[in-house]
Design brief:
Helices cover 31% and strands 25% of the residues. It is of the alpha/beta class. The strands form 5 sheets. Strands 1, 2, 3, 4, 5, 6 and 16 form a 7-stranded mixed β-sheet that branches. It is an enzyme of class 1 (oxidoreductase).
């Protein structure tokens, strides 16, 4: 094993996914020298095993479903999907799991890339061990940013390793369509992957321990998605957990809490995430290995002057777009502190603001129908002590929805703070609603008064006219 002498940078970033890339981009733009450490592929989970491959897989599925709802077109799209073409399309969007383009981008901003396993080995110090054993010791004058993300969590079931279960990584990178697939879970990964593989020809069984799917959204979101999965041919079982799972002669055998025995070719566990902090040297600076990292609104780790935790590792919102937002805030905070500029925490919207706001976190679930939400659900708003009112409207009531799809089925809800008459949360469920959620995000993040929303006129005939129906329902009831 060889070791180079210590190399000093202003900032060292652990992890080169979208979050780490954005931290590096912002610190380099501020003129700070920046090193980025990556043990796998530059571009991270999102580029190769999550956002990009899953959406590439889902796009043909959703496009076919939409086409089948259009008179004059549905007859042309009645056949099965070309699974090999869909998988090839997915491979293209992952760059065939090669990161040359992402590396070139890092080069373009003059950030130095170190490949290998990075571990904190003391305050402001990261040691990178390459596959060939060579080590580089990097020191940070101003900040170390932990952007290592999260990994799929697996339940503690005896013999699970021998079963070789799928996690989100295998589900988005598989090269063959399994004849039978069991999906354990009821969240985003579970519902999206059930949608994909059912459409590609698998016989899918979804086992959800809770009362319904997508339990972090309004209840009707999970209900409509479950209804569509069942209509597509999937077997959806709620209130169901896995008691045991084995692989016998290549066949996966699942026994549920109801005593049912289910056979499959593969089983996907989509039952949560865990932080990738178990082997990054947290113990050398007095923190617990494998833990989520608590941060302030500038993304600096509680109790530290130099350590930042950005993206999934701080457990605030496990979403790529939110992690990238945090990265922009963290980069601004690091740059401000490095230059001695005080953070304007009392003015979060100011030109030099470097504090992250998490009141308006948007999310889209790319199932059929899509489910999109931002801010608080009705239950969350009530639990937080707000005096609120939920306004529900059938999305099919707007002309644009009927034009978008024959027999359009969907629902919208806005949660209104009755004291301030602003929106605390908005949820849409229906075909194509993912493109509606940014307007809702602006309304929630900007705390736009209901009286002013009346003057944001939706174009006719678009699905966005649902905003007018929601406001009318609030006024008239």
């Amino acid at each position: 094993m060889t070791e180079t002498e210590s190399i000093a940078y202003d900032v060292v970033v652990l992890g080169a996914g979208p979050v780490g890339e954005n931290v590096a981009d912002r610190t380099r733009a501020a003129g700070l020298s920046t090193a980025v450490v990556e043990s796998e592929l530059v571009g991270g989970e999102c580029s190769y095993w999550a956002c990009m491959p899953s959406k590439a897989l889902l796009r043909p599925v959703i496009a076919r479903a939409d086409a089948r709802r259009v008179p004059g077109l549905r007859q042309s799209v009645q056949g099965p999907l070309d699974a090999s073409a869909v998988l090839a399309h997915r491979d293209y969007y992952t760059s065939h799991w090669k990161d040359d383009g992402q590396v070139q981008w890092l080069d373009s901003i003059a950030a130095d890339l170190y490949r290998g396993h990075g571990r904190l080995t003391g305050p402001r110090t990261v040691t990178v061990t390459r596959a060939d054993g060579e080590r580089h010791v990097l020191t940070a004058r101003h900040a170390v940013a932990v952007c290592t993300g999260s990994r799929a969590g697996l339940p503690d079931l005896p013999g699970l390793a021998e079963v070789r279960p799928w996690t989100s990584r295998e589900a988005t990178s598989a090269q063959e369509v399994p004849g039978r697939l069991v999906v354990v879970g009821g969240g985003v990964v579970a519902t999206e992957m059930a949608t994909v593989w059912q459409a590609l020809g698998s016989r899918v069984t979804v086992l959800c321990r809770g009362k319904g799917l997508l339990n972090r959204m309004e209840p009707f979101a999970g209900e409509l998605v479950a209804e569509a999965l069942i209509e597509a041919g999937a077997d959806v079982r709620t209130g169901t957990s896995v008691e045991s799972v084995t692989r016998e002669d290549g066949t996966v055998v699942v026994v549920t809490n109801a005593g049912d025995r289910i056979e499959a070719d593969e089983i996907l566990f989509a039952t949560g995430r865990a932080p990738r902090t178990d082997d990054i040297g947290l113990d050398t600076i007095g923190l617990a290995p494998g833990s989520w990292l608590d941060v302030d609104d500038s993304l600096r780790v509680t109790g530290s002057e130099w350590l930042y935790a950005v993206g999934d590792v701080n457990h605030r919102a496990l979403l790529t777009h939110q992690g990238k937002y945090q990265a922009r805030i963290a980069g601004a905070a690091i740059a401000a502190r490095a230059s001695g500029v005080p953070l304007l925490e009392s003015d979060p919207w100011g030109a030099h603001a470097a504090t992250a706001d998490h009141t308006a976190v948007p999310q889209v679930v790319f199932t059929d129908p899509e489910a999109a939400a931002v801010g608080l659900s009705l239950a969350e708003a009530e639990q937080a002590g707000h005096r609120v009112r939920a306004v529900d409207v059938d999305l099919a009531s707007v002309a644009g929805a009927g034009l978008y799809a024959d027999g359009y089925k969907g629902r919208a809800r806005m949660v209104v703070d009755l004291e301030r008459e602003i929106l605390l949360g908005v949820t849409f469920v229906g075909p194509g609603v993912g493109e509606l959620i940014h307007s809702a995000t602006i309304a929630v993040a900007g705390q736009v008064p209901i009286s002013r929303l009346w003057h944001a006129v939706p174009s006719y005939p678009t699905i966005s006219e649902i905003w007018l129906r929601l406001l009318e329902a609030y006024r008239d009831n």
